[in-house]
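FAQ

Q: What does a record look like?
A: Structure on top, sequence underneath. For example:
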């Protein structure tokens, strides 16, 4: 194999030049490393071009020149050295900035080539890329320099010992701290043994054999372990010595002067001991909290929250200190925001002990770093539960003091006022500023003498309390009574510190007592004597009558129709009317006679010294005369009358209660006699009263049973005889006796109020029957009678509407019948009710027209449809000219007012003829048909044959057939 093949096949960049400096070989490794193809350089003398920017010899050129020894220093100063293995060869290292990115370090060798005869024929140069090695060496040098700088500038002493325990590196601080002289280091790195022996011999380790000290230290050093200890030098310097073994043997040891630090440490320890004592024995809870977790706390902290010691809280979240997790979260939001914004946080917080009991804490916290309060903060907790309780009690006491209805006044030991409450100002009229610092004698009224005050003070100082009624003076000068209570406050030694007075204005109480006394004997509305006084006066009058032989009389007065006044105009008007009545009675009976109100609209008059019956009549007339003038009350003009019952002592009774009951019975008889009159008692009245009571009880039991029922009396058109309606009439057929007529039980029902449920029952039954007739194909108008109580005391419109909804009967098939006296009693209320009924579609009729006032003005004001001529005028219609005139007048009035007329009590044909001749529209009576139960109606032929006969008779009279 030739030399060319050897060069080209070598992986080492290699080129050969001849003695003429021309390149003969340039292998592939050169091409790759130097970036120049062999074809471009072989045969040329441009071997310098890959290396340098300008022509200059490379090391191979210097070899073939034969003057390499003289020239190499010029071109490769401090970069070359002769080869140790090949004479005449050189090797060098150099940096070539043009080779590769960032330049390349090359290690190259050049050696001469000789022929077989030993003649120089050229030179061979090899190249090696040592860039990475050079960079590593540079890094090592920099690191060594940095380490050297660190060692030299280390704030303490430092030594580096090799595996043979020789000091290979140290700094000046080491020598200075240990006090080693420079000569120990001049002959080379000293050994650990030399240094230890030097110290031992100069007494650094204290008394003892230096050789033993050296042996002990060396023994430990030969078993490398990390070590750290402090040594105090003879001059008092304290050194902290720390040694760390190296992986391949040896130590790195540092020497730090901690003399000042140790002194500071001792001071800090002392302070810490003090602080720890304060921390552990503080009367407040202290905790170090990080991210809402307790990292440290003191004993008091544990005690506040009911734990045995700090260990029970350390490591726990602070939510265990709160009543609930929700409260913990809400409070946390606020406190950490405040810590961040203000650098501290203080608040009073309701927290929780271990046993669940609430505890109020004053909490003060400061963060270690305000920028990150979550990372740590110191908190102080003070248990203020008792303070809160006391504060609450003080606030309560202050609230009670300020808002007490009793006037409160506090004086000092010298009896000067130091505090008053609002009630004091309200009662006395003195603002606090006017009385503070003054003696309470400014309130004196001069109603009490000095003896009174001396006795008061004597009791107060002896018993520490005085209580009683006293008269004082307000700021306005008004004298008033008050109930005063004074207490003495003493200190522990028994000395007086304060006087506390509480008083109330008893003006109203005294007035109330007088009022109670008055009301105990008088009617509160009218001021008239009540039954108690009347009984006492009666007893006195009886004694007088027995001695004088005179008589007494009790007049029991009951106001007629008074309930209607209350029901229609309201109780205020009713009360005003009673007051006016009492005043009139006082004036009418002025003298020795006593007037008493028993309650409601009942009055009793006691007449004394009666010698003749005419005196009783005279008193009754005075009562009646005083009511002749109507009462004008709040825009209402009201007439009044009394029904009066009279009982006389001793003939009707000698006992007050018996005599009063008999006068009451006589009064009811007067009412039954037409009202606005008076009646003496006789025994028949007792029987009637008993009968009324029995009848009332039987009627109450009959409600809701089949003893009560309706009958219907047919109503016809007089011209055609056509049946158009029927009047519903209530009948009572007791199971335990004969039938009872309406004239007996209706008054009892109205008097007791039973007429209201009875009337509602009649309405619903009448509607039900109208429904049955309607379903049978023969609708009839049903007339229903209503009482005044249903107009004034019940919701008649609502009752009818309810019955109409339940039955489905059209309102036009129902006619409401009422007496004209109802219209006269309270026209506004009656008109309102009737207008509502008319708007609902019901027909309205006036029953028994002509028997009362028969006021045309009233007829014009009400929405009526029909007038009913009372049977009293129809009975003698054919024989009595007055009845004929009344009937004709009623018919004419109805025609003028566009009303229909129906005659009641038609019994025979002559009445029919007369009524029809004068234009009466309708009629009912026994001639047409008596009242019968609904099942007796024959709707195809009329209710009874008599009705059909009457119709045929009427038809014959006018020459027509019935419709």
């Amino acid at each position: 194999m030739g030399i060319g093949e050897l060069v080209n096949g070598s992986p080492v960049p290699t080129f050969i030049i001849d003695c003429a400096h021309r390149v003969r070989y340039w292998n592939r490794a050169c091409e790759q490393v130097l970036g120049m193809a062999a074809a471009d350089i072989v045969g040329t003398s441009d071997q310098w071009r890959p290396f340098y920017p300008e022509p200059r010899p490379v090391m191979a050129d210097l070899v073939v020149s034969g003057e390499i020894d003289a020239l190499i220093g010029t071109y490769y100063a401090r970069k070359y050295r002769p080869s140790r293995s090949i004479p005449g060869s050189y090797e060098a290292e150099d940096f070539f900035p043009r080779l590769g990115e960032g330049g390349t370090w090359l290690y190259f060798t050049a050696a001469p080539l000789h022929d077989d005869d030993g003649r120089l024929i050229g030179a061979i140069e090899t190249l090696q890329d040592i860039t990475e090695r050079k960079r590593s060496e540079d890094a090592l040098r920099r690191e060594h320099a940095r380490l050297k700088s660190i060692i030299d500038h280390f704030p303490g002493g430092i030594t580096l010992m090799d595996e043979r325990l020789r000091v290979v590196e140290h700094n000046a601080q080491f020598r200075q701290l240990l006090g080693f002289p420079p000569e120990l280091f001049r002959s080379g790195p000293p050994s650990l043994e030399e240094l230890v022996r030097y110290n031992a011999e100069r007494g650094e380790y204290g008394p003892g054999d230096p050789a033993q000290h050296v042996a002990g230290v060396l023994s430990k050093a030969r078993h490398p372990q990390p070590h750290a200890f402090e040594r105090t030098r003879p001059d008092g310097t304290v050194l902290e010595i720390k040694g760390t073994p190296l992986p391949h043997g040896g130590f790195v040891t540092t020497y730090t002067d901690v003399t000042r630090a140790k002194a500071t440490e001792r001071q800090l320890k002392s302070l810490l001991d003090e602080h720890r004592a304060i921390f552990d024995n503080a009367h407040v809870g202290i905790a170090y909290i990080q991210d809402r977790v307790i990292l440290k706390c003191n004993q008091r902290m544990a005690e506040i929250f009911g734990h045995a010691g700090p260990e029970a809280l350390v490591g726990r979240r602070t939510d265990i200190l709160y009543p609930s997790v929700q409260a913990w979260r809400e409070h946390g939001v606020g406190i950490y925001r405040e810590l961040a914004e203000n650098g501290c946080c203080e608040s009073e917080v309701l927290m929780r002990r271990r046993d669940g009991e609430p505890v109020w804490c004053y909490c003060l916290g400061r963060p270690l770093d305000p920028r990150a309060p979550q990372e740590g903060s110191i908190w102080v907790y003070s248990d203020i539960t008792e303070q809160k309780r006391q504060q609450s009690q003080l606030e309560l006491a202050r609230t009670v003091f300020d808002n007490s209805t009793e006037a409160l006044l506090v004086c000092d030991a010298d009896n000067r006022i130091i505090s008053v409450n609002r009630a004091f100002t309200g009662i006395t009229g003195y603002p606090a500023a006017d009385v503070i610092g003054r003696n309470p004698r400014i309130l004196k009224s001069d109603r009490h003498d000095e003896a009174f005050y001396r006795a008061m003070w004597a009791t107060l100082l002896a018993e520490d309390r005085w209580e009683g009624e006293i008269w004082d003076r307000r700021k306005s000068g008004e004298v008033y009574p008050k109930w005063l209570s004074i207490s003495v406050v003493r200190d522990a030694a028994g000395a007086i510190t304060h006087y506390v007075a509480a008083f109330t204005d008893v003006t109203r109480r005294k007035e109330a007592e007088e009022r109670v006394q008055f009301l105990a004997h008088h009617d509160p509305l009218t001021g008239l004597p009540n039954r108690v006084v009347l009984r006492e006066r009666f007893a006195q009058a009886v004694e007088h009558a027995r001695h004088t032989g005179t008589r007494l009389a009790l007049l029991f007065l009951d106001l007629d129709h008074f309930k209607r006044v209350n029901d229609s105009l309201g109780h205020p008007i009713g009360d005003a009317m009673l007051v006016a009545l009492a005043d009139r009675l006082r004036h009418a009976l002025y003298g020795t006679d006593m007037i008493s109100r028993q309650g409601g609209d009942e009055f009793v008059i006691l007449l004394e010294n009666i010698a003749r019956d005419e005196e009783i009549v005279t008193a009754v007339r005075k009562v009646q005369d005083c009511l002749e003038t109507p009462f004008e009350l709040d825009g209402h003009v009201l007439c009044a009358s009394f029904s009066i019952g009279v009982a006389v002592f001793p003939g009707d009774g000698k006992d007050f209660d018996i005599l009063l009951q008999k006068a009451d019975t006589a009064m009811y008889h007067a009412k039954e006699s037409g009202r606005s009159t008076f009646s003496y008692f006789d025994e028949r009245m007792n029987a009637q009263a008993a009968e009324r009571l029995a009848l009332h009880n039987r009627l109450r039991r009959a409600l809701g049973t089949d003893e009560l029922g309706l009958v219907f009396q047919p109503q016809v058109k007089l011209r055609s005889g056509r049946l158009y309606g029927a009047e519903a009439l209530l009948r009572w057929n007791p199971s335990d006796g004969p039938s009872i007529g309406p004239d007996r039980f209706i008054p009892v029902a109205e008097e007791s109020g039973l007429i209201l449920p009875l009337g509602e029952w009649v309405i619903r039954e009448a509607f039900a029957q109208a429904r049955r007739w309607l379903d049978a194909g023969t609708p009839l108008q049903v007339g229903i009678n209503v009482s005044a109580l249903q107009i004034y005391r019940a919701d008649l419109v609502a009752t009818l509407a309810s019955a109409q909804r339940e039955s489905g009967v059209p309102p036009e098939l129902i006619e409401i019948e009422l007496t004209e006296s109802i219209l006269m009693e309270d026209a506004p209320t009656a008109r309102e009710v009737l207008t509502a009924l008319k708007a609902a579609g019901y027909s309205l009729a006036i029953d028994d027209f002509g028997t009362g006032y028969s006021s045309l003005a009233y007829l014009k004001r009400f929405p009526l449809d029909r007038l009913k001529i009372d049977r009293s005028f129809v009975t003698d219609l054919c024989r009595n000219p007055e009845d004929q005139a009344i009937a004709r007048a009623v018919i004419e009035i109805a025609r003028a007012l566009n009303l229909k007329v129906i005659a009641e009590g038609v019994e025979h044909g002559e009445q029919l003829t007369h009524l029809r001749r004068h234009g009466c529209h309708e009629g009912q009576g026994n001639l047409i048909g008596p009242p019968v139960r609904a099942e007796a109606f024959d709707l195809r032929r009329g209710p009874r044959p008599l009705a059909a006969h009457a119709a045929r008779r009427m038809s014959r009279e006018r020459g027509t057939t019935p419709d």
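Q: Is there anything notable about this one?
A: The CA atoms of residues 272 and 278 lie 9 Å apart.
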